[in-house]
Design a protein that fits this description.
The complex is a heterodimer of chains A (258) and B (294). Chain A is built from ten helices and two strands, in the order H-H-H-H-E-E-H-H-H-H-H-H. Chain A is mainly alpha-helical and 258 residues long. Chain A has two domains: 153 residues, no CATH class; 71 residues, no CATH class. Chain A has a two-stranded antiparallel sheet with strand order 1-2. In chain A, a hairpin with a 2-residue loop joins strand 1 and strand 2. Chain A is flat, with a radius of gyration of 24 Å. The termini of chain A are far apart. The longest helix of chain B is centred in the N-terminal third of the chain and has 34 residues. Chain B is globular. In chain B, helix 5 packs parallel to helix 7 and helix 6 packs antiparallel against helix 7. The chains are: A mainly alpha (258), B mainly alpha (294). At the A-B interface, helix 2, helix 4, helix 5, helix 7 and helix 8 of A face helix 1, helix 2, helix 3, helix 4 and helix 6 of B.
Chain lengths: 258, 294
């Protein structure tokens, strides 16, 4: 498994400052959750899909999100259509099963919001390298400690997966069977976990000494080695996204007062 | 001494961030439980889901931002290992086809040996990275891992890791709190359907006459306490297998005597000293530890 979903094309979307994409994603999520369902659908059709096509990752976005969303959406419509607590208007009835329009409406609202949330965040991950996202956030005042933890974990996970796999194989070669009833399999966790954790923690001490020797704990402000390109247009765009999101929050409140 | 004054103001700032984050998370939950449950049914323009997602995310971020500066470098070097442990074991469990998640072993482990602040940072970043790597659906649930980190850290402080049979009790309590905190996310952001299996259980509870929030809370109460009890037990067994010399390196373990008798308390003054001095003391203490043991 590759570490992240990131696909390294060079399209205008990929070249955008990561912060612009992050703010855009957050604005999309806020707007989707503040307004009725048509807003989410509108955002997906007008913003997310064209952006994915420009970024040449429309097909990957479609597949990844289908695998993620399909089971959830099916469960959502089935469960809320049939058993929504506020359901009164019966649309369809068979034996003891009744589908209510309130339930379907609720499922539509929630489902369209989840779609906007998942599609927007997968698009961000597909088009943004985690490293550039971290350096861009650090430039804007995030603690470099967060950047260290996230980047370092992204490198560690594949290494640990290999380690876990080889421990599993090693224990199986000693006669560990990974079948049987659930209780037995819970007990099997221990011969897998103990060597994994022991091996993983042994080098933590050494690493922390090395980090301390390079002034990792210092609170002084660092300069960046590779500055992330930014532009005035993008800075304005980011503020525009914030204003749009605020407007989306305010609209229903103002409409309610009138 | 401008440097000491800046560390002092930083400390105050960190405290304010943590307090603010905790207040926002609790206020979000209280608001949703008290004000909303019935209304979401009628109006699609209801703000409940927006408040749920925004309040929890902002609260979790503030808690993490306030916590990270309290961590010494040894702890920071351990956090990526713990996050990787969360993710790798979480996936290993899904391969073994068990009916639990066990996706917070690393968070509980770090909280037990480095305190609640370390658990908070591990918890929130686990879900951020899980969202980046595998599944953005875990992102809104970051606050749940934060709560698990805090609870596990305080359980360690109060001696729940000294005896193996106390740990599952702390796990049960943590599981109940985790279920209660995560219920509004499952209800108002995902409509009760975070996966096909949980969706079916939520549907069953709704058919029995529960409200949406009630159904997701009950669904969480079925799985979370068991899962966390097992997690805490696994962590206690792992900790028993780790060398005492490694565990005693952590000031938190020494200060609160997390593992009982096998933890000789070194001079308490070194643990209470200022963070910068404490760190030097930790190194010295670890060296001293090594010589006395051999």
């Amino acid at each position: 498994m590759s570490t992240t979903l990131y696909s390294g094309h060079s399209t205008p979307i990929h070249r955008l400052n990561p912060l612009t994409k992050l703010v855009a994603m957050l604005a999309i999520i806020v707007i989707a959750f503040a307004l009725p369902w048509w807003a989410s659908v509108l955002l997906i059709v007008v913003v997310i899909v064209p952006a994915a096509v420009i970024a040449k990752c429309g097909r990957r976005l479609l597949w990844i999100s289908l695998i993620m969303l399909l089971p959830i959406l099916l469960a959502l419509f089935a469960v809320q259509g049939l058993t929504f607590p506020g359901g009164a208007t019966v649309v369809w009835q068979w034996e003891f099963l009744t589908v209510t329009s309130e339930g379907l409406m609720f499922a539509l609202t929630v489902g369209s919001r989840i779609c906007a949330l998942v599609l927007a965040s997968i698009l961000l991950v597909l088009t943004t390298h985690p490293g550039t996202l971290m350096s861009s956030l650090t430039e804007h005042g995030m603690s470099p400690k967060f950047a260290y933890i996230i980047s370092s974990t992204l490198q560690l996970v594949p290494a640990f997966k290999d380690r876990a796999d080889s421990i599993l194989l090693a224990q199986q070669s000693r006669g560990l069977a990974i079948t049987g009833n659930p209780l037995r399999r819970v007990r099997l966790m221990m011969p897998l976990l103990t060597p994994l954790v022991l091996g993983m923690f042994t080098d933590v001490e050494e690493r922390s000494t090395a980090m301390e020797a390079r002034a990792f704990g210092s609170a002084a402000k660092r300069t960046t080695l590779v500055p992330v390109p930014d532009s005035t247009a993008q800075r304005i765009a980011r503020w525009l996204f914030v204003v749009l999101a605020a407007a989306a929050i305010a609209t229903p409140i103002v409409m309610g007062l009138l | 001494m401008s440097t000491s004054r800046t560390t002092e103001t930083n400390k105050v700032r960190n405290r304010i961030l943590i307090a603010l984050g905790a207040i926002i998370v609790i206020a979000t939950y209280v608001y949703i439980v008290v004000a909303q449950p019935a209304e979401i049914a009628e109006s699609a323009t209801s703000q409940a889901s927006l408040i749920a997602i925004a309040g929890y995310v902002v609260g979790a971020i503030l808690l993490a931002a306030g916590s990270i500066h309290r961590l010494p470098t040894v702890t920071l070097a351990m956090v990526p290992v713990a996050i990787a442990l969360n993710i790798v074991v979480g996936q290993l469990v899904s391969v073994l086809n068990l009916p639990i998640y066990l996706d917070s072993i690393g968070t509980v482990l770090v909280s037990a040996i480095a305190g609640p602040a370390a658990g908070v940072v591990t918890g929130i970043l686990t879900n951020v990275i899980w969202g980046l790597l595998l599944n953005p659906i875990s992102l809104p649930f970051a606050v749940v891992q934060v709560v698990i980190g805090v609870m596990a850290g305080y359980a360690a402080r109060w001696g729940f890791f000294r005896m193996w049979y106390l740990a599952p009790v702390a796990g049960l309590v943590t599981g109940v709190v985790a279920a209660v905190i995560s219920a509004p996310i499952a209800a108002y952001i995902f409509g009760g359907a975070t996966s096909a299996g949980t969706g079916a259980i939520v549907g069953a509870f709704q058919a029995m006459g529960q409200s949406l929030l009630g159904a997701t809370t009950l669904q969480g109460l079925i799985s979370d306490p068991l899962d966390k009890a097992i997690t805490f037990t696994v962590v206690v067994i792992i900790l028993a297998a780790l060398p005492a010399r490694f565990l005693q390196r952590f000031p938190f373990v020494r200060e609160y005597n997390v593992f009982g008798k096998k933890a000789p308390v070194l001079s308490p003054s070194s643990a209470a000293a200022a963070p910068a001095a404490a760190e030097a003391a930790v190194d010295a203490a670890a060296d001293a530890d090594g010589t006395t043991e051999r």
